[in-house]
Specification:
mainly alpha; two-stranded antiparallel ribbon; rod-shaped
Length: 175
């Protein structure tokens, strides 16, 4: 769920950066009145870096655990809040001239808000589940650091993997 939220948030932020966020009619001299547009990337320059941070956060959440995942989760939550702020800062819902792409402008900002919420939720979920979810490579951790399996069949296979004879009664009782 954390990974899906971060990926969808990154996609939403990238999409918001591509849509028109600001438009107005300007005097183009001999060309007459022209439509001037600015994309989300031009208007809120942090959108693409926040989307990339969210993508990097996916790898970080998978690869880390414990306190490192908590720190990463806090950073991602703050990035989500920044994306929401970028989406709502300066938005207006009325007073538009006829012929402006109002729907696209509001959709771009709305997409930034949704993306920010997804990234923030993914970050908070990473903080909350830092101790519960496994990190990358725990299967290959040293025997002293990983928990012993309680399943007898699994213990037999573990013994075989470690080069021991699980059927040797003398070796198992002498421990």
């Amino acid at each position: 769920m954390i990974v899906a939220g971060l990926l969808l948030g990154a996609l939403a932020l990238w999409g918001a950066s591509r849509l028109t966020w600001f438009a107005e009619f300007r005097d183009g001299g001999v060309r007459g009145t022209v439509l001037y547009r600015e994309t989300g990337e031009q208007r809120a320059t942090a959108l693409v870096p926040l989307a990339l941070l969210s993508l990097a956060g996916v790898a970080g959440v998978i690869a880390t655990g414990g306190w490192a995942r908590r720190v990463l989760g806090v950073v991602l939550a703050l990035a989500g809040v920044a994306a929401v702020w970028a989406g709502v800062a300066g938005v207006r819902f009325s007073g538009w001239a006829d012929g402006l792409p109002v729907t696209q402008m509001l959709l771009g900002r709305g997409l930034a808000v949704v993306g920010g919420i997804l990234v923030a939720a993914g970050g908070l979920a990473a903080v909350k589940g830092a101790a519960k979810t496994a990190r990358l490579g725990t299967k290959y951790a040293a025997p002293a650091t990983r928990k012993k399996a309680r399943d007898p069949d699994a213990e037999l296979w573990e013994a075989l993997s470690e080069g021991e004879d699980p059927t040797d009664v003398r070796g198992r009782h002498s421990e």
